[in-house]
């Protein structure tokens, strides 16, 4: 069963903004070592660097690898609502916060499906965010506002 997070950006994301985004992603993923790794068959730590972010769940809790690059991209990640979905959601929320209208994030889920990812961002970065989901062709377009 698939449960999909869709995301895209039609231009390369600026390096300076990407660097600030990556810093926040690293804070948000603190403590994730028992839930995510590089690939389902590669136990290395996720790649979080100047050009890309790559990770998946571990063992039975893996599904499709999450891949986000600074370069122009239209992509999706089926997580099947497995444990690593909250980390995918947290990274996508942070991307939406950092890149605004340059980054689009859609989910097949609803507000309730976003709670764990939202909690990671808020708790790890000590900020409050508001999510707005707008129905769009069977999925929800996600807007993230720092409050």
Structural class: alpha+beta
Counting H and I runs of at least 4 residues, what is the number of helices? 3
String of helices and strands:
EHEEEEEHEHEE
- Alpha-carbon Rg, integer: 14 Å
Q: What fraction strand?
A: 25-35%
Strands, total number: 9
Number of domains: 1
Please state how the strands of the largest beta sheet are arranged side by side. 6-1-7-9-8
Main beta-sheet annotation: 5 strands, antiparallel
Overview of the molecule:
Helices cover about 30% and strands about 30% of the residues. The protein starts with a strand and ends with a strand. A five-stranded antiparallel β-sheet has the order 6-1-7-9-8, covered by helices on one side. It is built from three helices and nine strands. Strand 4 (about 50-55) and strand 5 (about 65-70) form a beta hairpin. The chain has helices at about 15-30, 85-100, 110-125; strands at about 5-10, 35, 45-50, 50-55, 65-70, 75-80, 105, 130-135, 140-145. It has one domain. Helix 1 (about 15-30) packs antiparallel against helix 2 (about 85-100) and helix 2 packs across helix 3. The protein is of the alpha+beta class.
């Amino acid at each position: 069963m698939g449960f999909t997070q869709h995301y895209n950006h039609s231009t390369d994301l600026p390096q300076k903004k990407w660097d600030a985004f990556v810093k926040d992603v690293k804070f948000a993923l603190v403590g994730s070592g028992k839930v995510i790794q590089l690939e389902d068959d590669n136990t290395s730590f996720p790649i979080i660097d100047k050009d890309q972010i790559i990770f998946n769940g571990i063992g039975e809790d893996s599904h499709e690898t999450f891949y986000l690059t600074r370069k122009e991209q239209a992509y999706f990640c089926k997580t099947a609502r497995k444990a690593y979905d909250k980390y995918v959601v947290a990274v996508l929320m942070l991307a939406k916060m950092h890149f605004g209208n340059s980054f689009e994030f859609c989910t097949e889920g609803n507000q309730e499906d976003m709670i764990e990812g939202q909690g990671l961002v808020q708790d790890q970065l000590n900020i409050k965010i508001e999510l707005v989901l707008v129905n769009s062709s069977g999925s929800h377009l996600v807007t993230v506002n720092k409050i």
